[in-house]
Structure prediction request, 244 residues.
Amino acid sequence: MSSFSAYMHELWNRVWGGSGSDYGYGVAVDSTNTIVMAGTTESLEVGLRDAFTLKYPSSGFQSWYILWKGLSETTHDITIASLSVSKTIVGQGYFANINVNVTNHGEVTETFNVTAYADTIAIEAQTVTSLDPSENLTLTFNWNTTGFVTDNYTISAYATPVAGETFTDDNNYIDGTVLVTIPGDINGDRTVDISDAGQIIAHWHSPPFPDGPLGYDPIADINNDGKTNILDVSIINVNWHKSL
Ligand SMILES: [Ca+2]
Ligand SMILES: [Ca+2]
Ligand SMILES: [Ca+2]
Prediction:
């Protein structure tokens, strides 16, 4: 859009829109020399073509516009923002907690399913109900490793896309690996021995008694009861000197 003086000198020249197909269908000038244009644009929003009304004051600065978007163009976009696992080493048959943070980046309230996986094995599915735009929520999945063979597992979570969602790359989140090992193998060397017992002492946590020198570590809390104490020692005793 250009503005010319009465002598056909170009006063200013402005380009509006973007890389999509943008069309101006009509232009008018009001009594204050404000230029008004109506047309369609594909540049400013995702989805189909939108109608616009655009205004430039006579100065050429501080333009504004209004877009009319179709109702079907409301953005739907859920995301898994983060994933963390309480333990990177877990005794077979015991629990690890998987915390998954989901965020609604779309424009409407969404209800959707999130599934946590160990490799390709579904651990659990949970339903997020009525998550408002811009809101986030942390889900906790309790992974019971009973029946999982001793091995490394890649932990991930997947949010099933909602209707109308087009950007789904961020619906999947892959975390690091977790080792399922012999209960009592706290240091993950696949054998239960004195060095694992040493980890229990170092991470002793049994309030109101004082912590061990290194404080609470979920890995040393083999039975996942929030304490590292004689019950965890007894698990080491049961598997003493066992190896994979
Ligand atoms: Ca998404
Ligand atoms: Ca060990
Ligand atoms: Ca414990």
Notes: Residues 77-79, 165, 167-168, 170-171 surround calcium ion (ligand 1) (CB under 6 Å).
